[in-house]
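Morning F.,

Quick status update on the modeling queue. The single chain you submitted on Monday has been processed. Sequence for confirmation:
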Amino acid sequence: MGLHHLIAKLKKWIKILEAKTKLLSSSFLLEERCRFLSVFSISTADVELPGEFLMPKSNIHSHYYIRIAQFMPRVELVQKHNMSARRLFIRANNGKIYPYLVVNDACLSDSRREERVLQLLRILNIYFEKRKESSKRHLLFTVPRVVAVSPQMRLIQDSPSVVTLKDVMKTHYVKKGIDEDTAVSLYYERLAAVQARGEQSTHQVLRDIFKEIQSTIVPEVVLKEWAQRTYPGAADYWTFRKQFTTQLTMLQFAEFTLHLSRLSPEMLQIIRASGRLNVGYYKFEIDDNKGELDANRPVPFRLTPNISELISPVGIGGVLTSSMVAAARCLVDPKFSVDSILRAILRDEMISWHKK
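Structure tokens below.
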């Protein structure tokens, strides 16, 4: 059996399994699996919300922590972070409901490294709030609460309104009646045709294939059209686009200055309710041989054609540039002593690398 036939059969079985998965129940009652949590209340025990102690607080509010009032009765089964997870809803003593994902991370060996990056971003948020130029632009990282319950299990703060760029593309494919693997299949077909002629896959050939896919299957306006459908009002769309731009600026700034792992499109998560951006699996980019931060990359960060079309040239030259300059000026302020924070966190990173 050839490789193409094997791939075709695998794609067929993936569709069959996805169809069968959609027929399964998408939720269950908490009482059926864990009666103790279903009857838990604030009178049972005084328990803080997961990850509450991770959030830095000022001296004025240091004594106040949000506590668990009860667990909501229904648990949802969702597909997040390329795996199946359970979504718990926790009602706090302030009346708000906080959703959390129960994720089995037994296959992820770098989860502790990811948590170190998240803790660094939480600390940097304090500095951005204190500086006038960054505070008035609302330049803050969106950092979810991540709590390790066991070596294999984690609780991750979630939002039901989160969508990924993959979800946006699926919506586009369904609207056009195109199979979601068409772009990948076309790429390998064109690449196989080039190799069959005995030619080399040069940068020009790859660029031509990319332009063909872009013009026929994935146009540059997919993300922009999705945003216009999601936010039909002019004020809502303008607010979302500005929030999206400032959030993307912070992620790109952190990726370049802190030598984080490259921001791939599949890592980006959009919170529709607020326009904020969340990134999964950020960690320090460390050379496995030297144990040093890897700064060898062709460009500091990337703007895909769809993201550039949404932000527009005015946004790139205006909001994105000014926000990045304001963030950089904040961190070079000597009174914040950012280098001492970096030494403490990178020390743990170096110890982790040395143990490997």
